[in-house]
Write a structure and sequence with these properties.
The protein is mainly α. The chain is 66% helix and 0% strand. It has helices at residues 11-25, 33-49, 56-60, 64-87, 92-106.
Length: 116
């Protein structure tokens, strides 16, 4: 079992810390894919809320207090995404690598054409 002060340095140590955190509270029974994706959606919406009505420039230059609040929401999104991937036994890094390859085929480097 990980201690809350143990360093979280990669996705595996984050996953393990979250497993321990949830097990200590007996939350695993609630962490079904359906519930986790719903929670992820809510946290993503809370992240979006910080940028609603902001200009592009304002969204790049957050005040310290706003940036801290955004960091909390990013952490919530990462936590729920990590738990969802764990429950579904999906390697997020492998999935990301595969998606980058798919995107490279779908969106090849422009050869003189204007692309957004």
């Amino acid at each position: 079992m990980n201690h809350p002060a143990d360093p979280i340095t990669d996705l595996h140590s984050l996953r393990d810390a979250l497993r321990d955190f949830c097990a200590a509270r007996d939350w695993h029974r609630y962490h079904t894919p359906k519930n986790l994706v719903m929670a992820l959606s809510v946290e993503t919406a809370e992240l979006v809320e910080h940028f609603q009505w902001a200009t592009a420039e304002e969204s790049r230059k957050l005040a310290a207090e706003k940036k801290a609040a955004v960091a909390d929401e990013i952490a919530d999104v990462l936590i729920y995404l990590t738990e969802l991937a764990d429950v579904l036994e999906i390697d997020m890094l492998a999935a990301a690598r595969q998606k980058i390859v798919k995107n490279a085929v779908k969106y090849p480097v422009a050869t003189g054409e204007n692309h957004p």
